[in-house]
Specification:
This protein is α/β, with parallel strands linked by helices. The protein is globular. It binds adenosine-5'-diphosphate (ADP) and aspartyl phosphate (PHD). The site of adenosine-5'-diphosphate has 18 residues, from loops.
């Protein structure tokens, strides 16, 4: 296959389109430096998703002044970028204003609706705004681009905030769109819609997953995720001063690392790529020539070397039968069923004869109801303010160096993975990987 015929899918996250300069840089990357993709997925600008979550909170709490203030800030951000790119009074600004008006109308309509549904109708709007800007800019710099509505492509169930994909219908819709159009297909990450057309979201940071869905449906030769780091590192370089890039690793290893908290790639991204044998490349939009990291079917250096994942703001739930008896299989199943109903993920699970310990993210809206339900049936103790460190391919000396001068509230270890739960007060803001 010639280079020109390769089918590439690209994903650009919020950092790569945070302002007008960043969108200009993206335009020149695609116009001059990187091979043209067949399709691309774009997230919301900068921290817009967080801003939309705050807007939603204000709306739910009937905080009218806070709501108006936040909506104005979101409008100003987007319209400011439109003006910087296209000048005053552009048709792009008109299109954005129309979407922002839709957002406001949706609030009036959904204020009393269930929270997850209301969340999706609000928070999913960030990607509709950003892609309107990016598609127009790419066309302006000569990259022929077709704006596509992900709500017409990615078909999901009705599980708001964590929707599951209807793969067969989604594949069919993406393939038929690709067959009728030669331009670069540009669509929104993070969102989809039910068969009835109601907007859903795929989970925070879900745009990587959207890109994988598109890559699989198009039978792509490769997926490239453009980040503000050159690739996947053996730890988050923002948290570990001496983190190093991993140039190659297998899907299986990347799945483990993302599952344990390597937030550079959304954990759901890898399964569709692995199924279809599509390699994933992680590259820097700040330094496109830098060697990337590649994730594929073969084991690479990352399958052997230690890697470090941190999760902050963790909560330990210590659960025991009220009668002091054994924690039999039925009781374990009951605890896990409650956890699944609360839509929480066990970042650590430790089962002993008389008690079970779970470590979960501190998400009060889910955790507090879970705590209440568990407390009805079990003796429950809760500890807040913890940090979970997971180390892949650890050795004893490494773990001893990490443990030095720290209390270990939970220790878990198997052949490939070690986990430690430390009090946050005993953990530094910036870590070092021991020599
Ligand atoms: N193992 C890791 N390797 C590289 N970056 C990591 C890793 N773990 C966490 N990160 C963080 O992921 C960030 C990039 O991901 P993210 O901010 O979600 O990008 P985007 O929003 O553009 O998709 C990096 O800036 C880095 O701090
Ligand atoms: N905008 C969504 C989806 C996403 O994946 O964003 P990013 O690619 O910037 O992480 C979020 O912030 O959750």
């Amino acid at each position: 296959m010639t280079q020109a015929a390769r089918c590439r899918v690209y994903k650009f996250g919020g950092a790569s389109i945070r302002d007008a300069d960043a969108i200009r840089r993206l335009g020149s990357l695609l116009a001059e430096k990187a091979p043209r993709p067949r399709a691309m997925v774009v997230s919301a600008m900068g921290k817009t998703t967080n801003a939309l979550e705050a807007l939603l909170r204000a709306a739910r709490e009937q905080d009218e002044a806070g709501y108006r203030h936040r909506l104005t800030a979101i409008c100003e951000d987007h319209l400011g970028v439109a003006e910087a790119l296209f000048g005053p009074g552009s048709s792009v600004a008109d299109a954005l204003e129309q979407r922002l008006a839709e957002l406001d109308t949706a609030h009036a309509a959904h204020r009393e609706a269930p929270y997850p549904f209301h969340y999706d109708q609000t928070v999913g709007m960030g990607e509709l705004l950003s892609t309107t800007l990016v598609a127009a800019w790419l066309n302006a710099v000569g990259v022929a681009t077709r704006w596509c509505d992900a709500r017409a492509l990615i078909v999901t169930d009705e599980h708001h905030q964590a929707a599951e994909i209807d793969w067969a219908t989604t594949r069919e819709r993406i393939a038929s769109l690709a067959a009728e159009c030669d331009e670069v297909l540009l669509t929104q990450g993070f969102i989809g819609a039910t068969a009835r057309g109601v907007m859903t979201t795929l989970g925070r940071e879900g745009s990587d997953f959207s890109a994988a869905i598109l890559a699989e449906a198009l039978g792509a030769d490769e997926l490239t995720i453009w980040k503000d780091v050159p690739g996947l590192f053996n730890a988050d370089p923002r948290r570990f001063a001496n983190a190093r890039q991993i140039l190659s690793l297998s899907y299986a290893e990347a799945l483990e690392q993302t599952w344990h908290g390597a937030t550079v790639i959304h954990p759901r991204t890898l399964a569709p790529l692995q199924r279809a044998g599509i390699p994933l490349t992680v590259r820097s939009f700040l330094d496109p020539e830098a060697p990337p990291s590649t994730i594929g079917p073969e084991a690479g250096e990352g399958d052997r070397q230690p890697a470090f994942m941190l999760r902050d703001d963790q909560v330990l739930l210590d659960i025991a039968p009220r009668d002091g008896g054994f924690l039999d299989e039925a009781l374990v199943a009951e605890v896990l069923a409650r956890l699944a109903e609360a839509d929480l993920h066990a970042n650590l699970l430790d089962i002993e004869a008389l008690r079970l310990r779970l470590v979960v993210d501190h998400r009060p809206e889910r955790l507090d109801p879970l705590g209440n339900t568990l407390a009805e049936r079990f003796a429950l103790t809760r500890h807040d303010g913890l940090v979970l460190l997971t180390v892949r391919h650890p050795d004893e000396a490494l773990m001893a160096a990490l443990d030095a001068h720290r209390s270990r509230l939970v220790i878990r270890c198997n052949a490939t993975t070690a986990q430690r739960l430390y009090p946050a007060a005993e953990c530094p803001a910036t870590w070092r990987i021991p020599d």
